[in-house]
Structures are given as C-alpha cells and as structure tokens.
C-alpha cells in the first residue's frame, strides 16, 4: 500500500503534530518541564523538554522568549494590521485615509493596531510599528494558542488612542474577557 504524497508544509504539520503528542505524553508522565532542566534530568528528558519549549508556540519577534528580553507581557484584546495594499476586512477607507484618521504618516511597511487595556481597564489602541510581531501573534491565535507580545519599546509606539479601533481580530484572551469565546 502506498502512502499519499505529502507537500513539504503537510510534512511539517505532521511533524509538529507528532511532537505535540510526545510532549503531551511526557506531561502525562509528570516529568515534562518548561523550566531549566535539573541536574538529574536524563538525555531523553532534556531533549523532550527542549522540544516542548520550542513548540510551545510559533516564535516571532517580540514574543518574550528571548532571554535578554525582560519587558513585561502586554495582554491584547485584539489586533489589526494596516498595509498600503491590504486593509482589514470591514475597513472601507484607503490606507492613506486610515493613517490620516489615526494621526500617523503612511509607511511602506504599514502599521499594527494593538487593542489593549489602560488604567482602570479602559480600552486603548496602541499604533505600533511591530507589524512582524503582530503577524506572529495572528499565526498563533489562528491555531488557538493564547500568546501575547512583550510591551513595545517607546520607539515602536507612534500613538495611543482612547478606545479600540475596530474591526479587529480578537485574541483568545480578549474573546474570553469580553465574553465572546463561545465557551461556558
């Protein structure tokens, strides 16, 4: 019997699925650790722990996993990405008009809108240059993984507006917080 031919992407997805099964089995045995390995850890345990840390989520710039990056994590309600050639679904204006309304200059790389909470849980939108980070967030959220970026550097923030820019793609955390997760 022949096996169906897998594309490279299908093969990688299957490898990730199997890696997650290995990590789940190790977790079921009670020895899996995302923390640094203790001295008495076996070679197999070290390898599985490293695998678990690697596949915990899709890594992206600003995901907080770099050891030298000690900025706090920023919980997001949702995001939107504005690009010259692609505006978010539901936005009827051009890129230039959207930038003008938000008070920022159009950039070839576009802008990311991070909807979060400020003081006293007030909704705010941060307009940031971190488009790559935002795309990494979206890749994780589309797989149901709740991940958040680290707080952007002041040089990455163009403006902060009161209220949320909509429409946005809700984070798993944001969907639960506003009661739209569909879970009891």
Strand content: 15-25%
List low-pLDDT spans. none
| Class from helix and strand fractions | alpha+beta
Question: What's the helical proportion of residues?
Answer: 25-40%
The largest β sheet comes out as: 5 strands, antiparallel
Order of helices and strands: HHEHEEHEEH
Widest sheet: strand order?
4-3-2-1-5
Quaternary class:
single chain
The outline comes out as: elongated
Taking all residues together, what is the mean pLDDT?
A: 85
The count of helical stretches stands at: 5
Indicate the radius of gyration in whole angstroms: 20 Å
- The tally of structural domains comes to 2
Strand tally, please? 5
Describe this structure in words.
There is one protein chain. With 184 residues, this protein is an alpha+beta fold. It folds into two domains: 8-55, no CATH class; 76-177, no CATH class. 33% of the residues lie in helices and 15% in strands. It has a five-stranded antiparallel β-sheet with strand order 4-3-2-1-5, with helices on both faces. α1 (8-29) crosses α2 (43-55). The protein is elongated.
Provide the descriptors you would attach to this structure in a database record.
15% strand, five-stranded antiparallel β-sheet, alpha+beta, 5 strands
Provide a quick synopsis of the model.
The chain is built from five helices and five strands; from the N terminus they run H-H-E-H-E-E-H-E-E-H.
